[in-house]
Amino acid sequence: MKPPVKTRRYDNARRTEQAALTRQDILDAARDLFTSQGYARTTVGAIAERAGVAIDTLYAAIGRKPDLMRALVETSISGQDHAVPAEERDYVQRIQAAQDTREQLAIYAAAIVPIQERMAPIFLALRDAALTDGDCAALWQEISRRRATNMLRMAGALRATGGLRADLTDQQVADIIWSMNAAEYWDLLVTQRGWSPQEFGAWVLDAWTRLLLTPSERQ
Q1: What are the percentages of helix, strand and coil residues in the chain, rounded to 5?
Q2: pTM reported for the whole predicted model
Q3: Smallest Cα–Cα separation from 143: which of 154, 156, 130?
Q4: What fold, for 70-217?
Q5: What pLDDT digit, counting tens, does each position of 44-72 carry?
Q6: Which CATH number fits domain 1-63: 2.60.120.620, 1.10.10.60, 3.30.1330.100, 1.10.230.10?
């Protein structure tokens, strides 16, 4: 007698893969519409139509419109299909392991280029949506606080390697990095002034080196 054909594992894997593809199609559609016509003018129906799914499928896969915005922000930051805590990101771990302050800044400057390429358009859409939508305003404030907290932790890591200027507090260091890694700063130089992403990365590294490090660490 032939053994029964085992299909359950294959079927489950196929369903999981299809669900992931559907979720990505929905997020891609939401990103296109949020960044091109704005959050307020974008309906869930329009997103579902762009993604080629039913509205009920969209709700089941991700949730309401604020959930779509949150998912876009988190995946834009992480570069993966889910949120990743700061301490688990590869570049953060490499910064923590580095023994040289300029090397730490170089790692971060290189990391923010692909992050901003993904994040800046959706982050600016979130900023604009926060002016009129309560859910988006709460998300904007949450992400802004997280960024500020993470930059203060980074300032501590930089201080531990001994290369920061003594006349700057960790809070000042954090605020300088926080302001220059913002989507608005990227938008000014890359989108509006036409800098290449590589020029932006080189510039922030040069600027941070000059602004934050002791003279002996600037080489």
Answers
A1: 75, 0, 25
A2: 0.85
A3: 130
A4: Tetracycline Repressor; domain 2 (1.10.357)
A5: 999 999 999 999 999 999 999 999 999 99
A6: 1.10.10.60
